[in-house]
Amino acid sequence: MADPSNEHNVKPPRGLRAPGKQLWDSVAASFVLNAGEVEILRQAAATADEIASLQDELQTSTLVVAGYAGQPRPNPLLKIIQDHRLLLRRLVDSLALPDDDQEHGMRPGQRHAQRAAQGRWRPAQNAKIAELRGEAS
Length: 137
Known about the structure:
Elements: H1 18-28, H2 35-59, E1 64-66, E2 72-74, H3 76-95, H4 108-120, H5 123-133
Antiparallel strand pairs: 1-2
């Protein structure tokens, strides 16, 4: 029989560097993940490592490089890093990890809908709307 305290402990993939391992450890230690979520976490950790590698490479390079016709242009690594950061954000969002005050996490669309609903029904805002309409409270 497996040790119940270690039952949901998922080992990190081999070859992770510090940023990926830190992400892995922070998520895997706090949440029970299913197989699909483990794969998303694996991709997110690898992406975090790639971002670190790209940033290391950018530090040894310049922010402006010569373009095709010799004109100055931004280093292509800047766009690649930006794309990787967006990918990492989407991967982490797709895990739908709960906040401290939640029992279950929400997908990005659910979070957006919740904020919209809260905005519609905020008492102070409704009082202002009633005042603008000339309605008595």
